[in-house]
């Protein structure tokens, strides 16, 4: 067959190997990723981040091909120790005592799925760079053709037709985005460093939704009391001020873009306090009400 599959269960095979992960680990991670994307999974908010409850017995039922429950438990523990999952343990849930894990995929987890353009790769004689053979590139010589006639290092996508147009589709004007964000967001930013976790997360959202959708989501901020920082926690008297990093998180961005935090035109009882108005599920507990300006 002579072809290497770039992605396994939605994760980059090369990066999985580099992280010491195997096919079984990737399978469990894919289930966790699907669970985290579901709004119906029980969750709680901790310092502005969403954590979902993962019942390991139920997780085992989703992937019986792995065999015993102990196998799933070992993988789950491995992912936490590798800092791919951020976990919060509670010993009581809804009046029932026990050990309950609430987890959130970390940036390292996201990095295994994201496409990151590789730059500053030394060129071969003739204008190309080495790529593994048999990965499905169009020229059959283990290099990836670009539309302008040059050649570059193979991209990390499971496709035989990806070229420079893919990279162009992930590009954006950082200064324009900063200006647009600072015009409406309650917490301003000074920079977006190329290649930083913030930059990669932005490109991941552009890859999923498109640049226009990113700007459309930002345009929603002034019309939402919650997102624009007008909502006051009656217990502290402080307003929650959203950060760009919170906004571009996979789950948070999806909710913003789908209108979960838009004002409800049929709700005549909306106020500027938590507990009133339709602002979506599990929004309120444990928000970070600090008044620092986001400087990263």
Task: Provide a brief overview of the structure.
The protein has helices at residues 13-18, 23-37, 56-62, 69-81, 107-111, 164-170, 174-184, 197-209, 211-219, 244-247, 250-257, and strands spanning 7-8, 11-12, 43-46, 49-53, 85-93, 96-105, 144-145, 151-152. It is of the alpha+beta class.
How would you spell out the order of helices and strands? EEHHEEHHEEHEEHHHHHH
Low-confidence stretches: 115-168, 268-296
Shape: globular
Number of strands: 8
Mean pLDDT: 72
CATH third-tier fold name of the domain at 7-112 = Arc Repressor Mutant, subunit A
Q: Given the helix and strand composition, which structural class is it?
A: alpha+beta
Q: Taking strands numbered 1, 2, ... along the chain, how are they ordered across the largest sheet?
A: 3-4-6-5
What percentage of the residues does DSSP assign to strands (E)? 5-15%
Helix content: 25-40%
Detailed description of the structure:
The protein has 296 residues and is α+β, with helices and mostly antiparallel strands. Among the domains are: 7-112, Orthogonal Bundle (Arc Repressor Mutant, subunit A), CATH 1.10.10; 174-258, no CATH class. The protein is built from 11 helices and 8 strands. Strand 3 and strand 4 (49-53) form a beta hairpin. Helix 2 crosses helix 4 (69-81). It is globular, with a radius of gyration of 22 Å. Residues 115-168 and 268-296 have low confidence and may be disordered.
Question: Tags for this entry?
Answer:
alpha+beta, Arc Repressor Mutant, subunit A, two-stranded antiparallel ribbon, 11 helices, 33% helix, globular
């Amino acid at each position: 067959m002579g072809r290497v599959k770039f992605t396994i269960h939605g994760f980059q095979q090369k990066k999985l190997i580099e992280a010491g992960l195997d096919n079984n680990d990737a399978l469990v991670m894919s289930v966790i990723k699907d669970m985290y994307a579901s709004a119906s999974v029980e969750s709680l908010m901790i310092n502005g981040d969403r954590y979902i409850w993962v019942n390991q017995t139920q997780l085992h039922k989703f992937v019986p091909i792995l065999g015993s429950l102990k196998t799933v438990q070992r993988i789950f523990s491995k992912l936490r120790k590798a800092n791919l999952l951020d976990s919060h343990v509670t010993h009581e849930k809804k009046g029932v005592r026990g050990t309950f894990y609430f987890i959130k995929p970390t940036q390292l987890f996201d990095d295994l799925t994201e496409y990151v353009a590789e730059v500053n790769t030394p060129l071969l004689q003739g204008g190309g760079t080495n790529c593994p053979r048999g990965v499905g590139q169009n020229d059959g010589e283990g290099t990836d053709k670009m539309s302008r006639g040059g050649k570059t290092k193979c991209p990390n996508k499971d496709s035989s037709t990806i070229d420079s147009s893919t990279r162009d589709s992930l590009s954006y004007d950082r200064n324009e985005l900063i200006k647009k964000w600072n015009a409406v967001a309650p917490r301003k930013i000074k920079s977006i460093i190329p290649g930083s976790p913030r930059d990669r997360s932005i490109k991941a959202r552009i890859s999923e939704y498109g640049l226009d959708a990113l700007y459309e989501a930002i345009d929603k901020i002034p019309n939402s009391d919650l997102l624009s920082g007008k909502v006051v926690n009656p217990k502290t008297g402080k307003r929650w001020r959203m950060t760009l990093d919170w906004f571009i998180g996979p789950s948070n961005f999806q909710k913003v873009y789908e209108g979960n935090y838009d004002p409800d035109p049929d709700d005549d009882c909306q106020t500027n306090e938590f507990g009133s108005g339709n602002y979506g599920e599990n929004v309120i507990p444990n928000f970070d009400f600090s008044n620092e300006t986001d400087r990263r």
